[in-house]
């Protein structure tokens, strides 16, 4: 009786995990039909016995990957996290029912074990994973290895409990392994959270730097206005003196010189959008200070619907990445070209920078997507945008298109 109950609960648990642990590839009806067929096969193929167990795991893994979308490494991490957690609770259940004679108690134990497992999965593991997964683009291999190692270890102990070849010492070892698995998972997610915090701190530092640049720019403009007001009296006196003497040609020459001087003072103005303009100012100064040629052509309107924090995340990360790429290229004449324009109701942000000649790709591989690039991608997608990255012939290119 308890096997039927636990098997039914197992099927429901597996189906729920397959539906909610990753984004479904098909609509709800098709997904439901697929997993309904799976459940009927699972009812026939009892999980008891190591051969049936591995068959069920292989079948479940295949269907899970077929019916969901997303990065394979993340889906694999989630699947084996679920498989290991399920195996832990199944081991506990089998250990408990061996010392209980009452069928009613065994059924209650089945419900309790499965309920606690669902709480661990959906209130602890999955929310923690979803919070940190979007910030982590590399380094999944070590997390994967830890989960697989525990899965293999716990499976061996699980199979012994099925065959009832477990003594008191083995039970203690099982419990120690399960506890070690729990503490290891806590350590894994703490490591992931540290990565998230680093990402957030990086974004905060970008915002702080740009805010400081804005304050400095306002102070400089105020000082410049004061200086211009002070100098204007002298300019008027000089022009009046030349006019009284009838020196028309000197007046024209003098005005041309002053016009060029004013243009030189205005080179820090790139576009009408205040946030984007401040970002461009900061990185123009950074590039110039490192002898990197930077060509900026910006025509961003002041009334873009994308909020300023999102623009900071996208534009600043793009330019910071371009700056690092140009520096690391070791080229004799590194350069950066930035274009920001409006086209067909979209804001188009393009950037090209000198990079290593060995860097070549049409679509950016996952191992190159650091925190900055991932922040750009996730922020652009949030505002119905798309990103394109490529590299060839020593030039790294990126284009971001978003609704205005």
- What is the share of helical residues? 55-70%
Widest β-sheet, arrangement of strands: 3-4-5-7-6
Assembly state: single chain
What structural class results from the helix and strand content?
Answer: alpha+beta
Q: Assess the beta-strand content as a share of residues.
A: 5-15%
Q: List SSEs in N-to-C order.
A: HEHHEHHHHHHEHEEHEE
The number of domains is 2
Task: List low-pLDDT spans.
Answer: none
> Which outline best applies?
elongated
Description:
Strand 4 and strand 5 form a beta hairpin. The radius of gyration is 32 Å and the shape is elongated. It has a five-stranded mixed β-sheet with strand order 3-4-5-7-6, covered by helices on one side. It is built from eleven helices and seven strands. It has two domains: 2-202, no CATH class; 269-404, Heat Shock Protein 90, CATH 3.30.565. It is an alpha+beta fold and 404 residues long.
Can you tag this structure with a few keywords?
404 residues; alpha+beta; 2 domains; five-stranded mixed beta sheet; two-stranded antiparallel ribbon; 7 strands; 69% helix; elongated
Topology:
Blueprint: H1 2-20, E1 23-24, H2 28-44, H3 50-66, E2 68-69, H4 72-97, H5 103-133, H6 140-162, H7 168-244, H8 248-265, H9 274-289, E3 293-298, H10 308-328, E4 335-343, E5 346-354, H11 371-382, E6 386-392, E7 395-403
Parallel strand pairs: 3-4
Antiparallel strand pairs: 1-2, 4-5, 5-7, 6-7
């Amino acid at each position: 009786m308890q096997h039927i109950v636990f098997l039914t609960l197992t099927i429901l648990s597996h189906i729920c995990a397959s539906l909610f642990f990753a984004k479904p590839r098909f609509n709800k009806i098709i997904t439901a039909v697929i997993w309904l067929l799976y459940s009927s096969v699972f009812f026939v193929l009892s999980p008891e016995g190591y051969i049936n167990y591995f068959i069920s795991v292989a079948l479940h893994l295949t269907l899970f990957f077929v019916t969901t979308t997303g990065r394979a490494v993340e889906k694999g991490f989630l699947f084996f996290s679920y498989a290991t957690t399920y195996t832990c609770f199944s081991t506990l259940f089998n250990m408990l029912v061996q010392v209980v004679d009452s069928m009613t108690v065994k059924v209650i134990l089945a419900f309790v074990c499965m309920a606690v497992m669902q709480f661990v999965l959906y209130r602890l593991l999955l929310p923690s994973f979803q919070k940190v997964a979007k910030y982590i683009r590399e380094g999944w291999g070590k997390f994967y290895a830890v989960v697989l190692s525990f899965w293999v270890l716990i499976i061996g102990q699980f199979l012994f409990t099925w065959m009832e070849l477990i003594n008191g010492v083995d039970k203690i070892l099982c419990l120690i392994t399960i506890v070690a698995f729990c503490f290891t998972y806590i350590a894994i997610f703490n490591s992931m959270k540290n990565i998230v915090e680093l990402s957030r701190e990086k974004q905060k530092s970008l915002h702080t730097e740009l805010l400081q640049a804005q304050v400095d720019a306002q102070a400089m403009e105020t000082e410049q206005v004061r200086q211009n007001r002070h100098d204007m009296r002298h300019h008027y006196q000089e022009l009046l003196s030349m006019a009284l003497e009838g020196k028309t040609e000197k007046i024209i020459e003098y005005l041309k010189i002053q016009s060029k001087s004013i243009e030189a003072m205005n080179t820090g103005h790139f576009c009408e959008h205040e946030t984007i303009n401040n970002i461009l100012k900061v990185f123009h100064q950074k590039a110039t200070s490192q002898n990197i040629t930077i060509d900026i052509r910006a025509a961003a309107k002041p009334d873009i619907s994308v909020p300023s924090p999102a623009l900071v995340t996208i534009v600043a990360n793009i330019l910071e990445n371009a700056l690092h790429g140009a520096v690391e290229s070791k080229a004799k004449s590194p350069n950066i070209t930035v274009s920001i324009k409006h086209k067909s109701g979209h804001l188009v942000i393009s950037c090209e920078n000198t990079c290593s000649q060995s860097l070549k790709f049409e679509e950016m591989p996952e191992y190159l997507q650091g925190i900055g690039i991932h922040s750009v991608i996730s922020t652009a997608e949030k505002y119905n945008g798309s990103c394109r990255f490529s590299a060839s012939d020593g030039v790294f290119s990126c284009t971001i298109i978003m609704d205005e």
